[in-house]
């Protein structure tokens, strides 16, 4: 669906010498942001002047990730369920091994009114075309 490269930086590494657990969510956000930009959108505008807000996240750590590693980060699927949508991610190392998997549940948000909103039809149509 969408993939981008990511090189593990020094600030991704924790005292254990591997990627910190919170960094997976940063990686997912970067992948999501680059994907949205690739289809002409961003987190503050997915259509009809609505942005997105994260409701929950899940991360599965499958292999250790260390400084300098090159990862291929992908959005594998997006499922729209009424008022929210789930994005499913995967990160692979240079050996094509899955090192991280996870998901984020997102909801449309009207940043001007500071209220949740329905998912814009414009966004749904963009997803249907993928």
Ordered list of secondary-structure elements with their pairings:
Layout (H helix, E strand, L loop, with lengths): L1 E6 L15 H16 L12 E11 L8 E12 L2 E9 L5 E13 L4 E2 L4 H9 L1
Antiparallel strand pairs: 1-3, 2-5, 3-4, 4-5, 5-6
Summarize the structure.
With 130 residues, this protein is an alpha+beta fold. It is built from 2 helices and 6 strands; from the N terminus they run βαβββββα.
Keyword list:
six-stranded antiparallel beta sheet; 2 helices; Thiol Ester Dehydrase, Chain A; 130 residues; single chain; alpha+beta; 41% strand; 19% helix
Structural overview:
- The chain has 130 residues and is an alpha+beta fold.
- The chain has one domain (2-116): Hotdog Thioesterase (Thiol Ester Dehydrase, Chain A, Roll), CATH 3.10.129.
- It has two helices and six strands; from the N terminus they run E-H-E-E-E-E-E-H.
- The protein has helices at residues 23-38, 121-129, and strands at residues 2-7, 51-61, 70-81, 84-92, 98-110, 115-116.
- Strands 1, 2, 3, 4, 5 and 6 form a six-stranded antiparallel β-sheet that branches.
- A hairpin with a 4-residue loop joins strand 5 (98-110) and strand 6 (115-116).
- The longest helix is centred in the first third of the chain and has 16 residues, at 23-38.
- It is elongated.
